[in-house]
Amino acid sequence: EVQLVESGGGLVQPGGSLRLSCAGSGFTFSASWLSWVRQAPGKGLEWVANIKQDGSDKYYMDSVKGRFTISRDNAKNSLYLQMNSLRAEDTAVYYCARPRPGYYHDYWGQGTLVTVSS
Amino acid sequence: QSALTQPASVSGSPGQSITISCTGSSSDVGGYNYVSWYQQHPGKAPKLMIYDVSNRPSGVSNRFSGSKSGNTASLTISGLQAEDEADYYCSSYTTSSNRYVFGTGTKVTVL
What we know:
By secondary structure, chain A is mainly beta. Chain A has strands at about 5, 10, 20-25, 35-40, 45-50, 60, 70-75, 80-85, 90-100, 105-110, 110-115. In chain A, about 0% of the residues lie in helices and about 55% in strands. In chain A, strands 2, 4, 5, 6, 9, 10 and 11 form a seven-stranded mixed β-sheet that branches. A four-stranded antiparallel β-sheet of chain A has the order 1-3-8-7, with no helix packed on it. Chain B is an all-beta fold. Chain B is about 0% helix and about 45% strand. Chain B is built from no helices and nine strands. The termini of chain B are far apart. The interface between A and B is medium-sized, with 21 and 27 residues.
């Protein structure tokens, strides 16, 4: 059974930093692209970033470029999102998900909530 | 990159069919057959229902079907059931730097 389990969310002040983690199991982690997708409270889904199997290619949504960094450790079957210079508008549930070649996401974690507030 | 446009809500009685539209542009929905649909129950993660416009993943009921015409994609739910009550989001590849774009979301209510 494919599982993606996020952790690391919490309350952080504006301008602060947070690192999210996602542990994968039940599939060949090192052979999969991986994404972070977020959802602000009561709002829709928004793709944040994704990373190639070996970490050599990374893509970000415009509003997080220069502030967020996606990375992975295939030896630990783990995906990360380092979030710096956080803003109130970054408040959301952050999901780890597996993208497929047809630009869809077939497996999703349960999400971790990030709240940016003073 | 603006979100794809979906109706805010759609409702139907048990057994009926409903259709949710998803309108984009030639840079996303209209230009590529990379449209997918997700179902999300309150407090839960999204679940893939349709990919590549009209393909169903294993385990998804054949009551769910997808199609596309021009810049508008559609999700049809036939034989509506109480368990279908949820939010639904479309998604597409986009030529913008953001690569993926999601729809505004549609709340489906089973009357």
